[in-house]
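Support reply, case 0932

Customer input (verbatim):
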Amino acid sequence: MKIAVNPDPDQIAKLLSSEESGPVVMLNLLKFKDTADDASGTGVEAYARYAERMREIVERGGGRFLWSGRIDSQVLGESDVDFDVAALVEYPSRSAFVTIASSPEVQEIGVHRAAGLEGQWLLACTAAAVGGAGTPS
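Our regenerated output:
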């Protein structure tokens, strides 16, 4: 399995080509470095500096942080990556996500993200009912 720090252009094009026009929830699976590249502390501490500012930027753009938590065990399946944290962030649309993520302000704070993050999976999710387990909002 491959984890990355930044998406490639084909992944962004695929995200934007979706027929889904409503809100998108981005599922972040994060793996941190033991020590931040900038020698400012741990990878978690460096990423926290990014996340604090990112929350402000996302909320200003109409999005919201829904939930985050430490991953303490993998119950089903196998992966060669032991992710540290999962987070759910909702954006008004896929294009709003790309606009926010590529903004100069996010690029500026990205130094903290890169210093602390070993890699991540970022999955775009859309509300859907699955076997009666929930209804789209």
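We compared this against your earlier run and they match. Two observations from our side: Residues 43-60 form the longest helix (18 residues). The chain has a mean pLDDT of 93. Please reopen the case if you see a mismatch on your end.
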